[in-house]
């Protein structure tokens, strides 16, 4: 049987379907067997004030779904619109491919996968924004 494998550091926290779970004193490994389980590592989570760029805002939106703090149906539309808008700014082949994959993940309710794909665009966004600074 396969599933999502989480390797947790001592005292690391993770949200699983909205429930906060903290690891104990030792490193551990958990396997999430149930498909469609929403998982968010809190060390990777963005704070609201950090959602200050287009890609970061989309990551935060996906994160809200995973944490259970937002209705997936409402947020899905916001994510898809945001991904479409990003497609107008990020026109290189790699970014376009990532945006298509993120969009497909959102449509099929694979929000963790969408978050992971969107996070891969953060370095590219940082480089573009740095190039625009006066």
Q: What is the element layout, followed by pairings?
A:
Layout: E1 4-8, E2 13-16, E3 19-22, E4 28-32, E5 39-41, H1 54-67, H2 72-89, H3 93-107, H4 111-119, H5 122-132
Antiparallel strand pairs: 1-4, 2-3, 2-5
Helix pairs in contact: 1-2, 1-4, 2-3, 3-4
Provide a descriptive summary of the structure in words.
This protein has 134 residues and is of the alpha+beta class. Helix content is 50%, strand content 16%. The chain is built from 5 helices and 5 strands, in the order E-E-E-E-E-H-H-H-H-H. The chain has helices at 54-67, 72-89, 93-107, 111-119, 122-132; strands spanning 4-8, 13-16, 19-22, 28-32, 39-41. It has a 3-stranded antiparallel β-sheet, with helices on one face. A hairpin with a 2-residue loop joins strand 2 (13-16) and strand 3 (19-22). Helix 3 (93-107) runs antiparallel to helix 4 (111-119). The longest helix is centred in the middle third of the chain and has 18 residues, at 72-89. It is globular, with a radius of gyration of 16 Å.
Q: How far apart lie the N and C ends?
A: 54 Å
Tell me the number of helical segments per DSSP (H or I, 4 or more residues long).
5
Reported for the largest beta sheet, the result is:
3 strands, antiparallel
* Lateral strand order in the biggest sheet: 3-2-5
Q: Strand pairing plus helix content: what structural class? A: alpha+beta
Q: Kindly report the average pLDDT value.
A: 90
Beta-strand proportion = 15-25%
Unreliable stretches, pLDDT < 50, 5 or more residues? none
The radius of gyration is 16 Å
Q: Which of globular, elongated, flat, extended, rod-shaped describes the shape?
A: globular
Order of helices and strands: EEEEEHHHHH
